[in-house]
Amino acid sequence: MSILSQAHFHNEEAAYAFVEKRIWPRGPVCPHCGDCERNSKMGGASTRIGTYKCYSCRKPFTVKVGTIFEASHIKMHLWLQAIFLIASSKKGISSNQLHRTLGITLKSAWFMSHRIREAMRNDGLTVFGEDGGTVEVDETFIGRDFNKKPKGEKKGRGYDHKNKVLSLVDRTTGQARSIVVDDLKKSTLLPILYANIAREAKVMTDEAAQYQQLGKDFAEHGFTRHGQGQYVCSVNPSVHTNTIEGFFSIFKRGMKGVYQHCGHNHLNRYLAEFDFRYNNRVALGVNDTDRADNLLRGVVGKRLTYQTIN
Ligand SMILES: [Zn+2]
User: How many domains does the chain have?
Assistant: First the structure.
């Protein structure tokens, strides 16, 4: 049977039940007052699907309140189709494709895909490299930051006008975390490393000057000399940043192939998408259905209005 023939992709009631089961694993919770006992599902032909009434605060609610689905007119089963398509495609899906496949307007598709990306965002409460694990750190440039103009006569040269991304990969857990940064100064990069990497970690970077002091701040600091063509340390082969280079190549292929025009303001959401896909990849035992389920669990507390993403 095709995965897409499942009821929650076609039937609105089944779609609500599917979402409720994942967001309220222990039964409905009133989003207004937090009561999880005194409520009941409202019936009747005039009641909207998935409406509950809370007897503590007397307010009605649905599972959409406080999630990326709030105030959206798109049917829940279409949201589930979009989530599955985005979660199961290796490089992501453009808004144009969603618009054509789901039969919704391009504007709706664009808004929907940004909200779904928001649901993929990991708030990053865990630190990398706990228990002395290894964390690779590297930066990359992607597209142009149109808020900045190229400087000087040699137009297009240099990296000042490009978007800059700092990524970390924890080799033990296989998780990645990416952050958009304004520049590559030590004063910008190091605080991010201190906030996201455990002191007992072994940190791997290239030879960039910004990282030279890391040996004092972390249990170990290994670096390769990319400038001299060295990608793996000849003395200690565990010193390299090849895992993160692999992550960047997936990210770049995806950004070039699917999302050609990504403004600086939206880049963090695309990064959340690529981090999410990497962190829920097949090699870590996550299949397409699990990945869509994990995405769905992230919809809570990520409400995004049209104004905030414009
Ligand atoms: Zn209530």
Answer: 2
